[in-house]
Amino acid sequence: MSKAQALVVDDETDILDLIKITLGRMDVQASTALTVADAKRQLQRGRFDLCLTDMNLPDGSGIDFLQHLSERYPSIPVAMITAHGSTESAVAAMKAGAFDFVAKPVDLKLLRNLVESALKLRGAAAPSDEAGGSGVRLLGDSPAMEQIRHLIAKLARNQAPVFVTGESGTGKELAARLIHAQGPRHEGPFVAVNCGAIPQELVESELFGHRKGSFTGAVGDKEGLFQAAEGGTLFLDEVADLPLLAQVKLLRAIQEKSVRPVGAQQEVPVNVRIISASHRDLNAEVEQGNFRQDLFYRINVIELRMPALRERPEDIALLAEQILSRLSQAQGSGTNASPWRLTAKAIEALKRHPFPGNVRELENALERATALADGDVIEVEDLYLAKCESKQARAPSASPGLDDSQPLEDYLSEVEKQAILSALDETHWNRTAAARKLGMTLRSLRYRLAKLGIE
Ligand SMILES: Nc1ncnc2c1ncn2[C@@H]1O[C@H](COP(=O)(O)OP(=O)(O)OP(=O)(O)O)[C@@H](O)[C@H]1O
């Protein structure tokens, strides 16, 4: 591939020189411009793979110039050079379509990371399929799903923090994986963490790492999840569950693009894209003082809302077919064709069901049905959907009575199962919230789910 070309626009010649030298060492040819007018002229004459522009230029604003670029030259990734500590301008730039930003005074390591990511968007390194080789796919032909796929492809091309919202089980993590897999970071790690599952006192050390001896139990240096995601994406699931103190540190890490491990003197620069998610309404959490407004503002640069399954019932048949085929492969039939078939009535029943637990609930219902069906045809009754619709049916008082023929062990398992299903239902299949409701740890709930064959 020919030498990469960058256009750098800034009215400070010192910064232009610094960036030009740094890029030159990366084998990137940089052309410089002091004004918007000059930059526009150069764009007409040359071909560029990347543009870095200051926010305030003598003859116009960087945001207006960015908009000009995204209309006329949409394939050029644009990074904004922002004033030190100006969160507003960094967020505004990314909302306006900037690929990333670098704050003054320019940190050369961060600049190099940014340029590397931008150049990966050039042809060769871009993943060819939707899954980016990850094997992950978001199924569904509904207009809502088409739109999500389109948005994901767009979001994959920049570095802005994305906040994925949606009920439990709507595919928030799957969407995050796809943004990672289709973007320039796809060769780097994708690290997912459920913020609600980390004990409060360990959050900081888990996220940022710790030095040996920094607290009782810190027997050696440990790298944090930020460091583990270096060069890739960190997915902060259930971000609303982060304690307030950890929120302050997270904000700092995102703003400064560096972290300080617990007990360390020095900050360590990190090159990580943040995608976060929550099934909760973060605006409400901010209003109630449970979530910091400044952090919300920073992680919610772009919002991606995953639709509930009941908003797109036309996707259910296709999803069900794929899930059954995956189950059959997992159970060793070794073919793509599913040995199971849903009757027309069963498909209709699935389409009418409200699915509070969304695609995950559909997966669970089908897995249960394959175990219960006689032969290869799945009937409405095998789906046990009525149970999910009626909370009463699950209440312990409605649990099956102990009869003489039933061993006590089975009876107790059934009661336990009903209580767990009921809590999951009430929390829209959010396992962290369900565990809290049941007064057990998430780990313990997971163990029970596995034991009872619910997952
Ligand atoms: N559109 C889809 N196509 C295929 N599978 C999907 C789709 N949406 C969700 N799934 C599947 O549903 C399950 C739940 O998805 P995922 O974990 O991404 O949801 P989530 O919204 O992050 O859930 P939670 O809020 O509980 O963390 C996964 O097994 C995922 O593969």
Name the CATH architecture of the largest domain.
3-Layer(aba) Sandwich
Q: Which stretches of 5+ consecutive residues score pLDDT under 50?
A: 388-402
Determine the N-to-C terminus distance: 48 Å
Q: Which word captures the global form?
A: globular
Mean pLDDT: 85
The third-level CATH topology of the largest domain is: Rossmann fold
Distinct compounds present = adenosine-5'-triphosphate
Share in helix = 40-55%
Portion in beta strands:
5-15%
Question: Got a strand count?
Answer: 18
Widest sheet, order of strands:
2-1-3-6-7
Tally of individual domains: 4
Strand count, sense and barrel status of the largest sheet are: 5 strands, parallel
State the helix count: 20
- Rg from C-alpha positions? 25 Å
CATH superfamily of the largest domain: P-loop containing nucleotide triphosphate hydrolases
Helix and strand composition category: alpha/beta
What is the top-level CATH class of the largest domain? Answer: Alpha Beta
Keywords: ATP-binding, DNA-binding, Nucleotide-binding, Phosphoprotein, Transcription, Transcription regulation
Organism: Thiorhodococcus minor
Domain Sigma-54 factor interaction: 138-371
Modified residues (4-aspartylphosphate): 54
Describe the structure in your own words.
This protein is of the alpha/beta class and 455 residues long. The protein has four domains: 122 residues, Rossmann fold (3-Layer(aba) Sandwich), CATH 3.40.50.2300; 165 residues, P-loop containing nucleotide triphosphate hydrolases (Rossmann fold); 81 residues, Helicase, Ruva Protein, domain 3 (Orthogonal Bundle); 56 residues, Homeodomain-like (Arc Repressor Mutant, subunit A). It is 44% helix and 15% strand. The chain is built from 20 helices and 18 strands. The strands form six sheets. The chain has a five-stranded parallel beta sheet, sandwiched between helices. Strands 9-12-15-8-16 form a five-stranded parallel beta sheet. Strands 4-5 form a two-stranded antiparallel ribbon. Helix 18 crosses helix 19. The longest helix has 19 residues. 39% of the residues are buried. It binds adenosine-5'-triphosphate. The site of adenosine-5'-triphosphate (ATP) has 17 residues, from helix 7 and helix 15. Adenosine-5'-triphosphate binds next to helix 7 and helix 15.
